[in-house]
Amino acid sequence: MRAVPTPTPIVRRLPPALQHDDFRRLWSSMLASGFAVQMVTVAVGWQVYAIHRSAFDLGLIGLAEFVPMALVALPAGQLADRLPRVRLVAVWGVADALVVASLLAVTIRGAGLLWQFVALAALTGTFAGLGAPAGRSLTPEIVPAELLTGALAVRSVGSEAATIAGPALGGLLFALRPEAVYAVGVGLFLVSSLLMLRVRAPATAARVGPPPPRLDGLMGGIRFIRSTPIILGAITLDLFAVLFGGSVALLPLFARSILHTGPFGLGVLRSAIAVGALLAGIRLARKPLGGNAGRTLLYVVGAFGVSMVMFGLSHWFVVSALALAVSGFVDMFSMNIRQATVALATPNSLRGRVNAVEGVFIGASNQLGAFESGAAAALIGAVPAVVAGGAITIALALVWSTFFPELAHVDRLEDVRPG
Questions:
Q1: 3-state SS string over 57-126?
Q2: How far apart are alpha carbons 245 and 385 in whole angstroms?
Q3: 174-194 burial string, b = 16+ CB within 10 Å, else e?
Q4: 20 to 30 A from 240, CA-CA: which of 165, 373, 375, 387?
Q5: Could you tell me which of 302, 292, 298 has the C-alpha nearest to residue 410?
């Protein structure tokens, strides 16, 4: 029997979830890849908008990422429930490093052709679709149930810390030399994969019972979500709120044409979202939600819509950054409630397939939402598009309990059990 190592004094001062060795390795891997993603996103957004000065082009990048991710979702979920999840995520990191290396080559050659960015965005979406179900399943697989809500909050803190520093650092490196952003991104993705390979997940956790028939296996996640109202309500609310209310894809346009700032200012705007989210994540890591989790979800989604209306109407950089920070703060509460609900209400044998379907919803709200934002801005203007989207989000929060009363009545997340 393997002896359990005694934690060092430094480790004992960490939050309980980070005292778990394998979660600490997983968290470090995610932090490295999170930095890479955020840095590269700023650079790509700036370069794409510079080609034609078109909001539609920014939305097209989101669409190019979403379509392949949605197409591979169901088989990817099956893979995540039948193959070692750690290895799948490690391979995903190497694949992303190759895409970023290709972006480096495109930048060296002038970065003047939109189709190159669209093609590489499609590759990014494909790899994300294949790897993300396994990645989202790892935390509840390796962390004990009593530490799960705290672990999800700590995971979000790491993600938002990368989102704060990553865009600002990416914007600064891009202003100095665009190629530097992509070179650093390649290195960070490779480091992430090496750290991931040190995570030791339970060998049999992802394989429970004999394999189901092929079609039944692929559709298992969809059937489970449809039969579990609290999961269906949580992820569809997130889908529509970010689909209509999100404005991240339009930040290059607002930075350049409305707020009249440069690449570093764009990075600061993206970081403002993460500052608010980080503050909320720290609060949740220290004191997880108590009761009335379902009602809290509806309140924070409504507040997210209000913050988007504020951002859309603002022409002052400080006010815009503050509105984005508020949106990040309340969105962190929403994300934590949704993630904990899905993780606790799903059996481990189905987590890959459920997370694959959830990933389509998340991708629809982010990548497809980016396309919707770009298309709406091209049709009616950026400011009306953002304000209208925020108003729709507020309306959704007001009526959602009518469609999903089970979700609104959720009290303590720790009491949620697999259906």
A1: HHHHHHHHHHHHHHHCHHHHHHHHHHCCHHHHHHHHHHHHHHHHHHHHHHHHCCCCCHHHHHHHHHHHHH
A2: 9
A3: beeebbbbbebbbebbbbbbe
A4: 165
A5: 292
Give this prediction's pTM.
0.71
Shortest CA distance to 201 belongs to which of 350, 285, 90, 355? 90
Express each pLDDT in 303-333 by its tens digit.
999 999 999 888 889 999 999 999 989 988 8
CB 177 within 8 A of CB 361: no
- Distance of alpha carbon 36 from alpha carbon 26, whole angstroms: 16
2/100 Cα distance (integer angstroms): 40
For 230, the 3-state DSSP assignment is: helix
Enumerate residues 6+ apart whose C-beta is below 8 A from 75: 218
- What single letter denotes the amino acid at residue 106? V
* Amino acid residing at 142: I
The residue-averaged pLDDT of 9-21 equals 67
φ/ψ of residue 99, rounded to 5: -65, -45
**Tokens representing residue 275 in the block:** 């500052």
Please check whether residue 42 is in contact with residue 264, taking contact to mean a CB–CB distance below 8 angstroms.
no
Give the Cα separation of 365 and 243 in Å (integer): 4
**CATH superfamily assigned to domain 16-202+216-415:** MFS general substrate transporter like domains (1.20.1250.20)
Rounded to 10 deg, the angle between the 21-52 and 114-142 helix axes is 160
Q: How confident is the model at residue 11 (pLDDT cuts 50, 70, 90)?
A: low
